[in-house]
Amino acid sequence: MLRYTLFLSILSLAIIHPLPAADTTVATTAVAESPIKVAPDDWPWWRGVSRNGIATAGPAPPIQWSKNSHVAWKVPLPGRGHGSPSVLGTRVFIATADRAKQTQSVFCFDRKTGKTIWTTVVHRGPLEKRGNKKSSQASCTPACDGQKVYVNFLHKGSVVTSALDLDGGIVWQTTVTGYQTHQGFSSSPCLFGPLAIVSADNRGGGAVVAMSRATGKVAWKQSRPKKANYTSPIVFKVSGRDQALMVGTNLVSSYDPLTGKKLWEISGATTECVTSVVTDGTRIFTSGGYPRNHVQAVLADGSGKTAWQNTQRVYVPSMVAHQGTLYAVLDAGIATAWDTATGKTLWKKRLGGTFTSSLVLAAGNLYATDESGQTTVFAASREGLKLKAKNKLGQQTYSSMAISGGRIFHRVATNDGGRREWLYCLSR
After folding, report:
1. pLDDT at 134
2. Are 401 and 362 in contact (CB under 8 A)?
3. How many Å apart are CA 103 and CA 369, to the nearest integer?
4. By the 8 A CB rule, do 141 and 188 touch?
5. Which residue in 342, 304, 338, 85 sits closest to 188, CA to CA?
6. Domains, the chain, ranges and CATH?
7. Which parts of 289-418 are beta strand (E)?
8. How far from 158 is each of 24, 90, 94, 135, 227, CA to CA, in Å?
9. Which pTM does this prediction carry?
10. What is the C-alpha to C-alpha distance for residues 403 and 410, in angstroms, rounded to an integer?
11. Among 113, 136, 237, 240, which residue's CB has the most CB atoms within a 10 Å radius?
12. In the beta sheet, which residues pair with residue 296?
């Protein structure tokens, strides 16, 4: 059910807040916003409630499924998108782009039944035509704070962040920066305190920008090098303080998430990265794949020291750090585990396939989905690959799973009589 009339009336009232020209922290007092309200078993934004790809609460999700088994519900998604679903409370949110209709939209579904609650067209075309064949015009994972849903889209040459209320109405829209397309755009919002933090690295000159969740007004901005990069900002409490972390453009960077002050920055990583960093509380782990392959452990205390690094290609799928072990699936379909302190390879095993989706962990098991829609489930173990199951769903996916309340929310595409996307809810 497309709410075109409501969209048009709301859009006419939407406030657009362009960035200030100055490349500095903006002395703006943000309007008070209600605290972020999420439950431990929600998956309210990219990489889950703890931002690390780990579901730490709720019952164990299924480890086996097919198109005919363990499916609580499935719904068709018009158009195409590679962003993941987000889940908060009774609702599931996902972004999509419909090239036939030249629209970019957010869908809201009932978490229990899959019934459509609302659909909001956030932008009307023209949609960007340039980019890698694996990119889409809806590669952002929406973020929800319990009051609003935040989403990024590349629209008419600029990255725009929009905030929608829980009825699907557009509350505000802010133009983050102009964007020069190379491979595409995929960054997702990171919510922290009163702010929504967004990155938009690109060859035209990118930025990391924090906006008031209440109004969309810019609280701070930091410029970035004129280089293509695709990662999302992540906030972790690491080395005793909250840090907003970015990797790519040949840098590893840390900012104070509330003020934008640069805490530290080192030369490292590589030019183009897609993964978001993970941490063991002392070190942060970065990876990239162009123009060189790397996995790097950086001490997050501001010393600028690299604890260890290697030349493995973990370009697109984000990793998982858990109980002293760093787990990864290389783009070429090899699963591996390293000791987080030393970088020692604990084990390495070929899964097969090509990987874009990020690893997720729940109830002691890792879920690794390749581009053909096959998910390998294996134990989070330092002792080697302990295979639990292999499951096939659809024929293609570039999206990462969301796991919440013992259910898996999984975006896949089928090719029976033409490509079509679906959102599945998998349950025991």
Report:
1. 85
2. no
3. 28
4. yes
5. 85
6. 4-426 (2.130.10.10)
7. 294-299, 306-310, 320-322, 325-329, 334-339, 345-350, 360-362, 365-369, 374-379, 387-392, 402-404, 407-414
8. 20, 32, 21, 16, 16
9. 0.92
10. 9
11. 136
12. 286, 309
Q: What is the CA radius of gyration of the chain?
A: 20
CA–CA separation, 105 vs 39, rounded Å? 26
Query: Count of residues for the chain?
Result: 428
| Residues 357, 372 contacting (CB under 8 angstroms) | no
Q: Of 106, 65, 22, which is closest to residue 388 (Cα–Cα)?
A: 65
Name the H helices within 231-289: none
Would you state the structure tokens that stand for residue 40, as one six-digit string?
């431990």
What lies within 8 Å, CB to CB, of 324 at 6+ separation is: 280, 339, 340, 341, 382
115 vs 83: CA distance, rounded Å: 20
Q: Which residues contact 387 (CB under 8 A, 6 or more apart)?
A: 376, 377, 378
- pLDDT at site 417: 87
Are 298 and 270 within 8 A, CB to CB? no
Tokens of 246: 């970015």
Q: For residue 4, give the 3-state DSSP assignment.
A: helix
Upper half-sphere CA count for residue 386 (Cβ side, 13 Å): 9
pLDDT at 31: 52
Spatial separation of the C-alpha atoms in residues 331 and 38, rounded to whole Å: 32
CA distance 201 to 332: 25
Contact 45, 51 (CB under 8 A): yes
- 37 touches 145 (CB < 8 A): yes
Output the CA–CA distances (angstroms, integers) from residue 96 to 101, 106, 396, in the order listed: 12, 6, 16
Take residue 43 and report the two structure tokens written for it: 């998956």
pLDDT the model gives residue 33: 81
Which tokens hold the place of 194?
């009163």
SS3 69: strand
In the numeric block, which tokens belong to residue 297?
């452990």
Phi and psi angles of residue 33, each rounded to the nearest 5 degrees, phi first: -120, 145
